[in-house]
Amino acid sequence: MSKPFSEFAQELPEKDEHKKSREYKKLSPKLQDAVDAIFKEMESKPSDFLNTFDKTINNVSKKFKVPPKKLMDYFEAEVLSI
What's the burial of 71, exposed, middle or buried (CB within 10 Å: 0-12/13-18/19+)? Predict the structure, then answer.
């Protein structure tokens, strides 16, 4: 059974909603800045984001000098906690 759009829309995260999660709060300030940059990129190009996710992770990891694995681990933990 499919949900009406109004119910689905309520489940979408608000802007900066990711900052309230337990996994986000565990991150170092540097990793939090990197995750914020990824979400900002996702908001600016939502239709193209999934196609360029790995590239975005690599670019942000270089910019913020954090390991790409740490960023991937964060996103995996977020997905598993939902």
Answer: buried
Judge whether 49 lies within some domain: yes
User: What number of residues does the chain have?
Assistant: 82
DSSP 3-state of 81: helix
CB atoms within 10 A of CB 49: 15
- Domain coverage including residue 77: 17-81
pLDDT in tens, 21-57: 999 999 999 999 999 999 898 888 888 877 888 999 9
Residue 10 within a domain: no
Domain-embedded: residue 3: no
pTM: 0.77
Do residues 77 and 18 make contact, with C-beta atoms less than 8 angstroms apart?
no
pLDDT (average), residues 65-71: 96
What mean pLDDT is reported for the chain? 83
